[in-house]
Amino acid sequence: MKHDDLQFPRRTALLGGIAALSCARTPEKPMADVRPRPLASLPTTTLSWLTLRDHFVATVGPSAGQGRPLGPLLVLADATFAPKSRFPLHPHEEMEILSVVIDGDLSHQGDGANGMVISPRGAQLISSRDGMHHAEGNETGTPTRMLQLWFAPTTHGGPPAYFYRQLGAQKGQHLLAGDEGMPLRCDVKVWWVDVEGARTLDVPQGRQGYVLALTGPVQAGAAKLQTGEGAEVQSGVLPLDGHGAVLWIDLPRPATAGRGPG
User: Fold this and answer.
1) Which DSSP state fits 176?
2) Buried/exposed 147-169: b ≥16 CB within 10 Å, e otherwise
3) pTM of the full structure
4) How many whole angstroms separate alpha carbon 40 and alpha carbon 44?
5) Phi-psi region for residue 129, left (φ > 0), alpha (ψ -120 to 50) or beta?
6) Any alpha helices (H) in 155-251, and if so which ranges?
7) For the segment 166-202, what is each residue's pLDDT rounded down to a tens digit?
8) Which CATH architecture describes the domain 31-252?
């Protein structure tokens, strides 16, 4: 018997093993459960100097105090300031406050970071802790659209702290808050995601999220989100498609999580 004949069974077994591995399929991840929140379902406050839509707990207007949080996310307000307008000075304590600018310039006045101006694709994080006073507004001659998010902290106390991040013009998925540079005191990450065609977001088991169309329309799973519309997302793969941008908020999911706000 030739030496090559002795090697043939081993080669056959090896090739058979490779073929079996190549035919094995990785189980596909399930599609995420998407529960949209259309504009018509959101409480809206319209004043001469401000238009504001609340996705969770409302802070101003006739619906103030109404609504339910999603995990540590208490407030998500989509606000447009008229030119030369601002909120009056007001206090906060033990709250993580993230402001994200979509259009125009947002000015900040208060105990800290006084005079700061946040431009489009920019964000300011205030960890109010033991307490601070501030006011935000628009000192320019054109409207300013911004989002303000309030998160419940899991650690408390200490002097207030201020952080700032400005994204560049490069399109992609960019972390706005939830790292060392923008340290939220809760288990949350907030992303700015540019949608130029098809892409996906992965929501692991034990997590949930909220997606809001900064500019739209954007297809989020089976839901078509117009500008300003959002959707609660449970674990799975979330396909996105369109030409715009979304805010993606990655949140912990309680073990007994129910349907959430609806």
Assistant:
1) E
2) bbbbbbbeeeeeebbbbebebee
3) 0.86
4) 9
5) left
6) none
7) 999 999 999 999 999 999 999 999 999 999 999 999 9
8) Sandwich (2.60)
